[in-house]
Amino acid sequence: MITARTKLSHLSLAIALSIATSGCNTQAESSAISQPKDAVAEANDFLAKAETDLAALSIEQNRAEWIYSNFITEDTAALAASVAERQTATSVQLATQAANYVNLDLDSASQRKLNILRSSLVLPAPLDPAKNAELANISAQLNGLYGKGKYCFEDGRCLTQPQLSGIMGESKDPAQLLEVWKGWRDIAKPMRPLFEREVELANEGAKDLGYANLSELWRSQYDMKPDEFSAELDRLWGQVEPLYESLHCYVRGELNEQYGDDVAPNNGPIPAHLLGNMWAQQWGNIYDSVAPDNADPGYDVTELLAKQGYDEHKMVKQAESFFTSLGFEPLPDTFWSRSLFVQPEDRDVVCHASAWDLDNLDDIRIKMCIQKTAEDFTVIHHELGHNFYQRAYKEQPFIFKNSANDGFHEAIGDTVALSITPNYLKQIGLLDEVPDASKDIGLLLKQALDKVAFLPFGLMIDQWRWKVFSGEITPEQYNQAWWELREKYQGVKSPITRDESDFDPGAKYHVPGNVPYTRYFLAHILQFQFHKALCDVAGDKGPVHRCSIYGNKEAGAKLNTMLEMGQSQPWPEALAVVTGNKGMDATAVLDYFAPLKVWLDDQNKSANRQCGW
Ligand code: X8Z
Ligand code: ZN
């Protein structure tokens, strides 16, 4: 959740300018009207001070949050909440003040900084200090509830989220899958009243800043009007929906053959516990159940890692070496001594993978309870993508130390991981023999189970949250509306009856963590655009799903040029640096999976499947 971190540490950070700040506010207004020249100077002074102060305070916040997430107790929660409270107060103050300067004739960088200051909060507190304190407290509690979450079996064994996810990924026993699926969701029930209050308070904070609600604020962070952004998402989803439907149809048919009509009917939405993942968000873990008969590439990265004796540290080293092969500097020693790779047995930690930038310079780290699986090998690349991005933009002014938009931050490591091809695995000694082109459908299917299956999930989380923020979904409808959207976008359903005593959204990290989720949808489009463009730079002439940019310094340099820009330019400019185009476009996704789409439709047709739900 690096970018949540980045966001928080950037803009909910801030130093308590306290009395001096509010005085400054009034002056700014009056001089802006009467003395434009002085007002411009004042605006620049305001920005300079804001950046210095924010940068300093962000370090304090990062440390408090790092310690809390690595050691969840009442005390660390209180300390983290107390820093968050100060920072939110200051960043709200700065966002309010920034509004006073936006109509001045400033240089474009200053103008952009003001806009970022105004719109980058993800959890704005009301001006009332008591409410700010309450919000900081609730936020820390929600994070803690997720991090401490466990399900205890009847035999007394209590498992944490990564362990339960391991069962969801491996088990083929529907009864066991259902027990774990349901058990994990019980951790979220106590979150419901906290979440409801969090929404109320943050909406009030958004209104204080001049937004209609928190939905409008979240959607204002993409260099376009909020409603244009929503329309852009609909457009991108429309591009990929037919591909998703073909995949859904095929997978549902195969699951029906495996489990039978009672467990996995061949029509309607797919029961959510059968897809190899706690949230049915990526389906790669059921590849073996749905693999094509004649086109299976015949290797499994989890097994290859085990065979070569990879431990957690070696998995991270290997991922680092991909980045250095592109020309990036190796990670600093402190990364290795300060990161968390292995789940500690003696304390509660937030296991959900995240990448951190403690000092906005070189103290970069990851925190992740690594499982020795193919899935986590990919997640490690994802996390390092964040760290290499952070280091690339470290020379930018503080407010620009972020990605072009939040989807970019999520896309970089994934882009690199798209280059984990059979050829690459052979080059690094994990695979003996590269499967020939007759196995491409298997390779593409495996990839689609993760990347294509993710798209509607990546979209629906914030479709739900935005409606919650705007009031269109009321607290009495939280769970029902959640499942309606799950069904609408993903075509999955709850395997058992749920009601409003449940709070299933809370069982997904980013809801209690208050991390916006549309970024991952964007990243799943962007990474295919980046991959295609970088493969072109690398001069690869083969099919794009066989292309690996491993070792290619030109591709690395191109990527680095974009990363170094940070958030200093509107995202279309950054996108153009790598792709030559200024628009997000799912054509790259469709091109990548084109042979698979033909194959899926063929399979669905010859099995006479009725697609859709
Ligand atoms: O949360 C993450 C990363 C950290 S930013 C591990 N991801 C989303 C998720 O796990 O739900 C990566 C893919 C989607
Ligand atoms: Zn991420």
Automatic annotation (TrEMBL):
Pfam families: Peptidase_M2. The keyword Disulfide bond applies. Transmembrane segments: none annotated. It comes from the Bacteria. This is Peptidase M2. Keywords: Disulfide bond, Glycoprotein, Signal. PROSITE patterns: PEPTIDASE_M2, PROKAR_LIPOPROTEIN. The keyword Signal applies.
